[in-house]
Specification:
The protein is mainly α and 79 residues long. Helices cover 72% and strands 0% of the residues. It has helices at 2-19, 31-38, 43-61, 66-77.
């Protein structure tokens, strides 16, 4: 679950960059990298990915097979 939490923070920070809210960025030491990577995603992409990560976390809490959850998440994150 820690990996999904970190992934969620990363993509939330990307969203904060997109909307110009740099005050709420958590991973400040990676801000330059975030700015570079943020150019690859639209806001719609980020909303879709954030939703997929949240859904994956919920599925893991419901004792769904972890490998299956991560495979589904990977497919949903691909564009």
């Amino acid at each position: 679950m820690l990996g999904l939490d970190l992934l969620l923070l990363w993509f939330k920070d990307l969203m904060y960059l997109h909307i110009g809210d740099t005050e709420h960025i958590v991973l400040l030491s990676y801000q330059a990298e975030l700015e570079r990577v943020s150019l690859r995603y639209t806001r719609k992409d980020l909303v879709t990915i954030l939703s997929a990560i949240t859904s994956a976390k919920q599925k893991l809490n419901q004792h769904t097979h972890p490998t299956l959850v991560m495979e589904q998440l990977t497919l949903q994150m691909q564009r």
